[in-house]
Every structure is written in structure tokens, then in C-alpha cells.
Prior knowledge:
By secondary structure, the chain is an alpha/beta fold. Helices cover about 50% and strands about 15% of the residues. It is globular.
Amino acid sequence: MAKPVVVVTGASQGIGAAIAKVFAKEIKGVRLALVARNAKNLGKTAAACAKLGATVESFLCDVSDESAVAKMSAAVLKRFKRVDVLINNAGKFEPTDFLTMKVADLDRLLNANLRSLFLVSQTFAKGMVKQGSGHIFNMSSIA
């Protein structure tokens, strides 16, 4: 059986990088599609995962941008042919005072934390339904 393909968004730092490294360590030969906007940090995560034995490909993408997600998902599927696990971890926190918060600030937060989850989940869920299997995990924060 082929090793699973795992997509991790927000994989360039923090929890996303840690999740990617755990998959690389715990599932020998796992195939990782690491997604983030920060190329330098994403490269570091990819290198660490490859060192642990994973097959790794990095995909630069703003997951709140519909066309960018379409291009990224097409590239992931071209490279790996399927997705077995999706970890929606990308997100943003901007400490803001509610009374002075602008609508544009709210839009940025909703796009990063909610719209991105919808866009990425929808594009990969279609393939999961077609293949009859798959798992989607959504990370969130009390922040």
C-alpha cells in the first residue's frame, strides 16, 4: 500500500511545522505537501521532514486566495495524484481592540481563518469523496 499523502497548511512555523515533523517521524515514507506563504521557513520545515524520511514537496500559497488555492491544489494532485489527510492549520491572529477594529481588519481575519478553511477543504474533499476515503482536520484557536 502506498504511503499516505498529507497536506498541511500553515506549515512554515509553529503548530503547522510541528505537525508536519510528527507525520514525518511517525509514518515512515509519508508523502507531505507542505503549504504556506513564507518560502524560507517552509523550506526549513521541508528539509527537517525530509531528514526524517518523508517525501516532501513545498507549495507556496495564500490559502485565503481562491485562485491561488486552485493552482496549489492542482499542483499537489499533479505531484501526488491524491490526498489522504488534510490538516487546515493556516491562520492569523492580530491583537485588536474590538471598539476600534476596522471592517478591513475583520475581513483579513475571516479570510485567513475561515475562508481559507472552506477553500482548501472544498478542493481536496472532492477528491476524497471520489476515492472513497480521506480525513480533514481543522485547527483553531481561542485567540
